[in-house]
Amino acid sequence: MKLSRKIFFSLVSIVTVSFIFLFFISSYFLHMRMEDEVKAGMYDELVLIRDLDVDPDELELRRMRLTMISPDGTVLYDSDAEGELENHLMRPEVQEAISHGYGEDKRRSDTLLVDMLYMAISDQEGNVIRLSLPIDSIYYDMLNLMPPFIIVLLLLFAVILILSYCITKWVMKPLDSLDFSGNVDTPPYDELLPLTERLNRQKIEIEKQMTSLQRQKDETSLIIKGISDGIVLFRDDGTILMMNDGVRNIFSLPKDANPNSILELSRSPLFFSILDNKGEGQGKIKVGERTIDVRATPSDGLGAVMFLFDVSEKERIERREREFVENISHEIRTPLTSISGYSELLERGAVTEDNIVKFSHLIHKEALRLKSLSDDILLLSSLDGKSRIDMSEDVDIVAVSESVKEYFAGKGEVSISVKSPLVVKGNSSLLEEALVNLVGNSIKYNRNDNPIEIIISSDRVTVKDQGIGISELDKDRIFERFYRVDKSRSRETGGTGLGLSIVNEIAELHGAKISVESELGVGSSFSIIFK
Ligand code: ADP
Predict the structure, then answer these.
(1) Does residue 182 surpass a pLDDT of 90?
(2) Ligand 1 pocket, 380 CB below 6 A?
(3) What is the pLDDT of residue 64?
(4) Which of 292, 309, 385, 431 is deepest in the core (most CB within 10 A)?
């Protein structure tokens, strides 16, 4: 119930009850007063009748009844009764009038059968003059006064209502204008002080908690935003409550995209089964070329949370490593088979003198292949980032090229042309290894001992040859590990199929890129371009 209503009804009921009480008290006193007045009027009338000696029939008695009684009780005259009336000597008012000169009584009239007020006085002869009046008539008089009285009461009641309304408004006004948005230090009523103090304390407490909650919320959203993996919070029916930018990246959505349902992200069977299982499920989905690992868990009361991890790179590395291991074992098996075959023949002594030298040469050649294979594998594994490589040297590419030229002295004609000196930050041994591989390839895949050129400019070093060249189709694959355009030629020249991947790794380590320009039957040029 509203306080204002309570105050209003309390005021109205207090005043109404008071008025009802006042009404009855005043009615009582009014009645008493009227009875006294009626009695006084009756007495005056009796005295007038006694002293003026008028004919009773000529008297105007209004509602009163006049009776004259002789000292022995005989009714001499009665204004209302017809015929003989019984002896009135024993009537109390008559008795009193005879003995004291005045008597009165209230009782039920045997003649008229109504409650009556009797008043009697005696005259000099001892006769008793009596006036009687129905008591009701006194009330009738009172009732005549009632309508104006009730009208006044109703008017008063209306005033009470208006006053109560105004008082309620007056009491409530300071309360209505109380502003709890700030601290309430001086409440309009002293009784409210403990309440406002408590409210102020609670307000401070709530503000503290809100600040801490906001901080937690900011921290959480910062963490969620910062995570590159996808996080989606969704209801059981799939409605998305929140998702981070990771999700937009995974599904290549614009920055401001806000899909409503997880089915707008993907309609894969996995997403449908997650919805069927109330937000539970895990598996992998394909988004274009990429593989996404999906894990969804229901969260009490919140719906469910789904994590999306792009595992394409991981899978690519795993696949590469698997293929690498398969290739290594294959590459190792070939020379090992040759070595074990030739050595077995030698062991059995079933070889001619000439073949002993030939077989020993073949075994040596295969062993060298194994060695260069293991060297290349070791180098590749040292380049995969797990071991520490000193990259702080200022490497003079011209000096490195000179050293490479020297390395190949007698194996091929290598010239150096310096358009601009080039010094890069990195590791000189690795850059030399890269150039050795490139120049080595140019020598291996040369035609008619054409000259090989190392060209150094401001941002790159290029190894150019006029060899057999590489087709467009093969150009994209030659950097793959163990890929060789012509396997037997590569084998013949002692190639492992790892040279260009080593060059690629070394270039990447120096923040450089490799570019190839080649034409079949014309020649190739490989450039390491530094940024
Ligand atoms: P390999 O040990 O077989 O030389 P690489 O990784 O160094 O392995 O090279 C991969 C393949 O690329 C070679 O087998 C060869 O077919 C081709 N290739 C590399 N360099 C040249 C070049 N200068 N001219 C023509 N083909 C080349």
Answers:
(1) no
(2) no
(3) 87
(4) 431
